[in-house]
Specification:
Elements lengths: L3 E9 L16 H13 L6 E2 L8 E11 L5 H11 L4 E8 L12 E9 L14 E2 L6 H10 L2 E4 L14 E11 L5 E8 L6 H13 L6 H7 L16 E7 L9
Parallel strand pairs: 3-10, 5-6
Antiparallel strand pairs: 1-3, 1-4, 2-3, 5-9, 5-10, 7-8, 8-9
Helix pairs in contact: 3-4
Length: about 260
C-alpha cells in the first residue's frame, strides 16, 4: 500500500460520541479523527482502532493505525493533530508503525478499567459522569472471588450482547482484579484479555456488582460461564464508568508525546 504507516494513541471522553465507529448521522471518534486527517492529507484517510468502544465509553489508550502519503515527521504530525482535534479528543502519542501494522488485527491483548463509586460523593457532578455512582458498599472479598473466576480461557457468550455472529465466544483473560479506591470511594476493576465481545466488560461488572451487594451468590459467576445465554446475567453496568486503557503489540516503537 502507498504511504507511510503511523499509529496514534488517543484519549477521549465518550459522553458526546456515539462510539468509535464512523456513522453517517452521529458524531463518532473515528469520524472526528478522519476528518482532521483528511484536512492534513488532502484526501480520505482510513483509520483502524484497537477496540471499537461503544457510545459513552472513554479511552485512556486507544491505539489507531493509518497511512499518510506525505512523509510527516512524527512530532510535526502530533502538533498538527493536537491543534485541530476537538476538546474531548486528545492525541497522546504518535509514532511510525511497522509496515502492514493494523491496530485491531495485530493487538495481542486489550485492557479495560471500570470505576465504581460506593460513597455518597460519587454523585458529585465532578465524579458521576466518569464512574458508576452506585452509592452503596460492596463486599471486597466477594468481588475478588468473582474476579478470579474469569482468569484463563472461557466461553463468554452469557456475558455479552445478543445478536453477535462470532466463529466462537472464547476469550483468554490474563488480568481480572478489583482494587479498592482511597477514602472508601469504591473500587476499580481491571481486566485484560486477548479479545472482548460486545458489552462483555459491562456484563461482567454488572454481575459482579450484584455479587458484591449480596444480590446473588458468587457461584453464579462460574455458572454463567457454562451458560449459552445471557438471560440470567445481571444488567450491564453503565457505559460511562468504562475506559479502554491500552492495547499490547509484539513490536511497536514508543513514538513521541
Amino acid at each position: 500500500m502507498p504511504g507511510v504507516p503511523f499509529y496514534a494513541v488517543l484519549h477521549y471522553t465518550g459522553h458526546h460520541f456515539a462510539g468509535w465507529q464512523r456513522q453517517a448521522s452521529h458524531r463518532t471518534v473515528q469520524g472526528e479523527l478522519e476528518s482532521v486527517l483528511q484536512r492534513l492529507a488532502g484526501q480520505r484517510v482510513v483509520t483502524h482502532a484497537a477496540g471499537r468502544t461503544d457510545a459513552g465509553v472513554h479511552s485512556l489508550g486507544q491505539v489507531v493505525s493509518f497511512r499518510l502519503v506525505r512523509e510527516w515527521e512524527p512530532r510535526e504530525l502530533l502538533r498538527a493533530l493536537r491543534a485541530l482535534t476537538p476538546n474531548d479528543l486528545w492525541v497522546a502519542r504518535i509514532g511510525l508503525a511497522p509496515e502492514g501494522f493494523h491496530a485491531r488485527r495485530d493487538a495481542i491483548s486489550r485492557r479495560y478499567r471500570y470505576v465504581v463509586g460506593c460513597d455518597p460523593g460519587a454523585s458529585s457532578p465532578f465524579r458521576h459522569p466518569f464512574e458508576w455512582a452506585l452509592g452503596v458498599p460492596l463486599d471486597h472479598r466477594a468481588l475478588d472471588r468473582g474476579a478470579a473466576t474469569f482468569l484463563g480461557e472461557h466461553d463468554f457468550r452469557a456475558y455479552s450482547a445478543v445478536g453477535q455472529r462470532k466463529p466462537h465466544y472464547r476469550c483468554k483473560v490474563s488480568v481480572s482484579e478489583w482494587q479498592a479506591r482511597p477514602n472508601n470511594e469504591g473500587f476499580i476493576f481491571t481486566i485484560e484479555a486477548d479479545r472482548f465481545l460486545h458489552r462483555m466488560v459491562r456484563f461482567v461488572v454488572g454481575t459482579m456488582v450484584d455479587v458484591g451487594r449480596g444480590r446473588r451468590p458468587v457461584e453464579d459467576v462460574a455458572r454463567l460461564l457454562r451458560s449459552s445465554s445471557n438471560r440470567e446475567a445481571s444488567p450491564p453496568a453503565p457505559a460511562h464508568g468504562l475506559y479502554l486503557t491500552g492495547a499490547r503489540y509484539p513490536h511497536l516503537n514508543q513514538g513521541c508525546d
